[in-house]
Amino acid sequence: MAFLVVCISSLLIISISSYVFQLLSDRRSRFPPGPRPLPFIGNLLGVVGELPHRSLARLAGRHGSLMTVRLGTLLTIVASSPSAAREILQTHNGSLTGRSPPDAWLALGHAANSVFVLPPCRRWRALRRIGTEHLLSARQLDGNNRLRPLLREAVLDLLRRVSGMAEAGPTVEVGRASFAVMMDLQWRAMFSVGLDDAAEGALHDAAHEAVAVSLKPNVSDFFPALAAADLQGVRRRFGRRVAVVYRMIDEQIERRMRGRREAGGGRSSGEKDLLDVMLDMSSEHGKDEDGAISLLQDIFLATVDTIASTIEWAMAELLQHPDTMSKLQEEIRKVLGSKGHVECSDINRLPYLQAVVRETLRLHPVTVEIQGYTVPKGCTVLVNLWAVHRDAKAWPEPEKFKPERFLPRLEETGFLGTTEFNFIPFSAGRRVCLGLPLATRMVHAMLGSLIHRFELTLPQEVKENGVDISESLGLTMIMAKPLQAIAKSV
């Protein structure tokens, strides 16, 4: 008992000392305006009481598009407009380089090897290059004879799963089906093997909970001096779920290494998958199994959840806007004719589908505060994409779902970011999302195929009460309540 009291007292002293030191540092610095902080807790009550992207946008409306807020002892500068986003992501992108990971990611040493939070060093560049050159680049996705059939099969798998759900019950969960499909696609792309039912269930539960817990408000992030205690147990929960994914990746590495030894080294036939590339690099440059596992997990978790969430948000908007749904169905059926599903090669012929996806990502960017740069003076800089995409000066009637706003300028509002920085759903600059090429192909192909093959409607009760579009924030922004729809084959 005495030991516990000593530990708690020590933690409090450390935390208070850190807070006082920060206050003294602030007085010597000039920061953008912001709400007046309360002692010790700062502006936490005004931010974490609701979803952070909404509360920060509300505060920005009072204090400016570039403002300072104090979250516990963490001093944070928030950008909430296209011009402020440009300053961070373009003008000063080179100097804001060190990304500060959420405390949960310290579990199992994941942050030390994560391509998402490593600073732009040699290791970071090497990991990004592996992912883009051998799995996620446009060249690989469009030209690789191993990957192209996998993308097509994933779309067909989604149609089969939704059809099976429709036969088994009154409604289908489009988001859950999309999540399962993307898990299997990524697993095949990385390891050249599919997932059985047991492995799929275990991965789904582990990935879903890891995503949900990874960026939840955590006292360890707001008071770093207390982080070692992990008072909310967030790091421990994240570590348990990540360990499941690590273990399954380890099994694939062991299986491949055993096969290589039996074959006398190297892969006997076929094109190399991402695991082959990682193992080849390890043998050439020395063993780096932790880096390989972290990269594989990063790619797996990020792309799976991002794509599934976008499809679910798009379907929720379309079901609430039947006129838009009808226009999209008409375009797809006119272009595809008797063809059964949308392929990646069809996307350029479907401008309204492209506009629907862009408008979905404008209203519901699945990554909300994706820039966590630690600047030299110890601040954290956040770009609130949710607020940027709702800037009334850039987007008339910003709260309305209007895909038509994108039709005259599809090319200039590409997914790599516009020159005005008013549409940057995958960020911009050197931290642009690694999975962008895969996401843009699969979201269009999967969503378009669902619209083409099924007549999707809302259950009567939901029609009367409206779709619950409340959000839940984890690694990505997902629907708090899974979307339920009635699907009938056409």
TrEMBL record:
<dbReference type="InterPro" id="IPR001128">
    <property type="entry name" value="Cyt_P450"/>
</dbReference>
<keyword id="KW-0503">Monooxygenase</keyword>
<keyword id="KW-0560">Oxidoreductase</keyword>
<dbReference type="InterPro" id="IPR036396">
    <property type="entry name" value="Cyt_P450_sf"/>
</dbReference>
<dbReference type="GO" id="GO:0016705">
    <property type="term" value="F:oxidoreductase activity, acting on paired donors, with incorporation or reduction of molecular oxygen"/>
</dbReference>
<keyword id="KW-0408">Iron</keyword>
<dbReference type="GO" id="GO:0020037">
    <property type="term" value="F:heme binding"/>
</dbReference>
<dbReference type="GO" id="GO:0005506">
    <property type="term" value="F:iron ion binding"/>
</dbReference>
<dbReference type="InterPro" id="IPR017972">
    <property type="entry name" value="Cyt_P450_CS"/>
</dbReference>
<dbReference type="InterPro" id="IPR002401">
    <property type="entry name" value="Cyt_P450_E_grp-I"/>
</dbReference>
<keyword id="KW-0479">Metal-binding</keyword>
<dbReference type="Pfam" id="PF00067">
    <property type="entry name" value="p450"/>
</dbReference>
<keyword id="KW-0349">Heme</keyword>
<protein>
    <recommendedName>
        <fullName>Cytochrome P450</fullName>
    </recommendedName>
</protein>
<dbReference type="GO" id="GO:0004497">
    <property type="term" value="F:monooxygenase activity"/>
</dbReference>
<comment type="similarity">
    <text>Belongs to the cytochrome P450 family.</text>
</comment>
<feature type="binding site" description="axial binding residue">
    <location>
        <position position="433"/>
    </location>
    <ligand>
        <name>heme</name>
    </ligand>
</feature>
